[in-house]
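Figure 2 data, in text form.
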Amino acid sequence: MSEQPSEQTEEKSMAGRTVLVTGASDGIGAETARTLAGHGATVLVTGRSAEKLRPVAEAVGTEPLVADFARLDDVRRLAAEVAERTESIDVLMNNAGGTFAPSKKTADGHEPNFQINHLAPFLLTNLLHPLLTAAPDSALVVNTSSIANLGGKIVLDDLDYENRRAIEFVAYGTGKLMNILFTRGITQRWSDDNICASAVHPGPVGSSFGRDSWIVGLAYRTPLKRFATISVEDGAAPLIALALHGPDPEINGRYFSRFSIDGRENKQAHDQALIDGLWERSAALVGLG
């Protein structure tokens, strides 16, 4: 059995590897990008704020790739721009996401927690599949999930909450649950392509999480934030550890609660019908064959 990812990462090198980090404008995405660049990786960064993303891109030595996951055309453009900059991707860090008011539909007409947390990264990962398969060795996809997956509920016939009320935290938890199912879908469908996938809960990070949600954002802007959250550096540490650990059958399809493998999961997380159904319906929604 191989060694599991841990916080002891100081001496590990990423030289010769290419990493794409989404949601890299600030928070754990920015910290992950800077740290992996410090380990020698070529790091590409994307985020929706050009102003915030620019200094991060400068710090890692690449051009910023601006994309808003509330617009699927932005995701398609992003995939094309990434393909122009590199011939392969060794590690894809699907970190973009957050919690959003369900009433604020995306430009594509979807419930925002569903699109931004799941549908957009699902589309991006599929569009980047050729670059992942082109990695010199195996490639790794890391999906940033959350313990909130425990409060989610996937209804395949109503992914966009057209026939039921969308409650914000439940919709967010459902998106994070989808991250885990998507991870298992990658494991099952792309194993012959030498692509591994893991999902990870980074912890309650005191970053700009929830800035688009009045309710969650209010809690994160109070003095209580200091007592209820961990630092950005601590939150990024599990993502960094997985990236440095690299693709490994022992972590393939597994969900980490920070550094603990097989963290607490919603009972739907291993439902094969949901794993297959979510993939198939997501593919149809974004126009993938």
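Caption note: The beta strands are 18-21, 42-47, 65-66, 91-94, 139-144, 195-201, 254-257, 260-261.
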